[in-house]
């Protein structure tokens, strides 16, 4: 019984599948036809002309000499254009940034309340944009229809570059020379308000980790929120770090007395200097390469100790500690 | 005239303290320096050669101090033999020196191993200069350009500070924090007044 019923079931199954298979080709053909018809419909629709808006970023070139554009933030325009559907689709959804350039060299600039002013009508803008937009059909309108410009006189200032750096060093490595920044100064061109309050220009943050060799990198200068009003003579600086393997060393050196200190006796009269020395120069350095001094000033003679100043130390040697930093003294009465 | 000993372990700053006393007009006998000078005399050279052989003499037949130090600092018996040779000469030299300074209220005898050599028995009082061990080690490393192990070896040949504190009448703390001149002035006044 069991076998019979199984064979019955097995016997029915192929018939059902065949029916399904027979119905599938019809569905597939239907779907293919549907897709083709949709594509053709889409193609026909996109061949037609439409009027639509496309937003463009604009950048301004040839700003008159000695003037700075102070409303450069209004740098987006909307162009209404008659074009084929394909062209509009390409213009609106192109992955490339849509940037148009507007030449300001022919502007008629007039003095205004807050500096200088000028405007560019849509017809003038269309003249310039016509060559940049590769559409066969014409531009219908531009929003805003007139671009207004405000200019201010350019002021210049020579300011130092401030390095914004964060670094870590590999074991036994150290920076053995002044961190080089080239150029150290830049000329900043901007409006008066900014120039008056500007005392330095920062670099963008430079992060360096586990340094174990000398390095030279180009770092862009930071402009901040009012970037459009700032123009630097250099947009970046070169930062150089001399990184070397170092060792810690100690030297005992005598302390001299400056000024009229014949009657002054200091204790101790020798100090210890603990410093970090590059391995390459370590064999060539000894205590005679350092000098230390205390200053004899009657005004200082109320203090119980005098400060020791290191007056000479070899280049690339980093003095970590002077022991003691102050010495005691006795003034011998004549 | 009083005879006062001034001592302290290596790197404590004895010489600085001695200099302050000198500025105050107190004659200071620098025993270690004087011993070095005596080592250059014929009788000491002959004695050193007899004890340790010609290996501790250089080509000009002077005592090679480095070679001698390397030999005696590792061997207490040899160190004792050297001290037995040098100390009587220093003692005699100091007595002569004192005779030349007997017009002073007191004189100082600066030596690293005042108690260890038993030399303190010749003095009315002794001044001990103390400093933390790590400061002493650091000072000697920088001053003599020697390794830490060598400094520790030299310190081991001296009595511990605690033991010396029991024998000293006056103590100067030279720990780079406490002012030393007021301490020296106080001791100076006490010695003059005693």
Overview of this structure, please?
The complex is a heterodimer of chains A (334) and B (194). Chain A is α+β, with helices and mostly antiparallel strands and 334 residues long. Chain A is built from four helices and 25 strands. Chain A is 21% helix and 46% strand. In chain A, strands 11, 19, 20, 21, 22, 23, 24 and 25 form an eight-stranded mixed sheet that branches. The termini of chain A are far apart. Chain B has a five-stranded parallel sheet with strand order 2-3-1-4-5, with helices on both faces. Chain B has two domains: 121 residues, Rossmann fold; 58 residues, no CATH class. In chain B, 52% of the residues lie in helices and 13% in strands. The interface between A and B is medium-sized, with 18 and 14 residues.
SS field, number of helical segments of chain B: 9
**Uncertain runs of chain B with pLDDT below 50, 5 residues or more?**
none
Number of strands of chain B: 5
CA-based gyration radius of chain B: 17 Å
Q: For this structure, what is the CATH class of the largest domain in chain B? A: Alpha Beta
* Order of secondary-structure elements of chain A: HEEEHEEEHEEEEEEEHEEEEEEEEEEEE
Give the strand tally of chain A: 25
Biggest β-sheet of chain A, characterized? 8 strands, mixed
How large is the radius of gyration of chain A?
A: 39 Å
- Portion of residues in helices of chain A? 10-25%
The assembly state of the depicted protein chains is: heterodimer
What low-confidence regions of chain A span 5 or more consecutive residues with pLDDT below 50? Answer: 1-12
Measured by DSSP, the beta-strand proportion of chain B falls in: 5-15%
Q: Which structural class best describes the helix and strand composition of chain A? A: alpha+beta
The largest pleated sheet of chain B is described as:
5 strands, parallel
For the biggest β-sheet of chain B, the strand order reads: 2-3-1-4-5
Q: Between the first and last Cα atoms of chain B, what is the distance in angstroms?
A: 12 Å
- Indicate the CATH topology of the largest domain in chain A: RNA Polymerase Alpha Subunit, Chain A, domain 2
CATH level-four homologous superfamily name of the largest domain in chain B: P-loop containing nucleotide triphosphate hydrolases
Total count of domains of chain B: 2
